[in-house]
Amino acid sequence: MAETTYQGLIEDLEKYLEYQRDEGVQRLEVDRAVLEELAKEPEAEKPETVTVEATPIPADFKSLEEIAAHIATCRNCPLCQERNSTVPGEGCADSPEIMFVGEGPGAEEDAQGRPFVGKAGRLFGKMIEAMGYQRSEVYIANVVKCRPPDNRKPKREEMVLCLPYLRQQIRLIQPKILVGLGGTAVEGLLGKPVRITRMRGVWQEYEGIKLMPTFHPAYLLRDPTKKKDAWADLQLVLGELGREPPPRK
């Protein structure tokens, strides 16, 4: 895997500082040596050279099965080199009330070829059950269909190359509502940078379909205090559909 670029470090630092600001943190201690390092002129970056075999993605798939078959042979980005399985998506494909969109497969998803089956997936299952749904009643997919190494965030170019699959899945499935799980998913759908702490809970729109941004289950595992916010977002989805959550057992 290529080393993190200087520009990438700056972007990550900016996102971290913005997150801290959104969380109400007003002061951070920074080591002087770190400041001196950041002040240095960046060295010229060497372009990453990875050989992949590009496969044009058709714009007129007739079925989800055709999409899944094409994904299984796709080698349009470097993610294909380390995958064990492709993870196209699963669930109700006939105009479900909700289609959930995540970031990308993790280790267990890569092993099984199914979305949201790891630790975050188990929390996700509890979330949709609390809404009154089973996995078979919704559709579940990701922005990228292969696991990024070390579960890192997909790179922009990887997302751009893989997004045609997701867009065509949405076209065929025609869900009533989309739920974007995390900033990366919402960024992929809207095609612009997203700060999920500010956008969550605020209705957006994708190709005429209402889109609700909320936190990714993996983020909720890291910060359980945000579960209440995520549940409030999902209740807005239920309200839009004219439904109420079932009584808790």
From TrEMBL:
It is an enzyme of class 3 (hydrolase). GO terms for biological process: DNA repair. Pfam families: UDG (PF03167). The keyword Iron-sulfur applies. Its EC number is 3.2.2.27. Keywords: 4Fe-4S, DNA damage, DNA repair, Hydrolase, Iron, Iron-sulfur, Metal-binding. GO terms for molecular function: 4 iron, 4 sulfur cluster binding; metal ion binding; uracil DNA N-glycosylase activity. This is Type-4 uracil-DNA glycosylase. The lineage of its organism: Bacteria, Pseudomonadati, Kiritimatiellota, Kiritimatiellia, Kiritimatiellales.
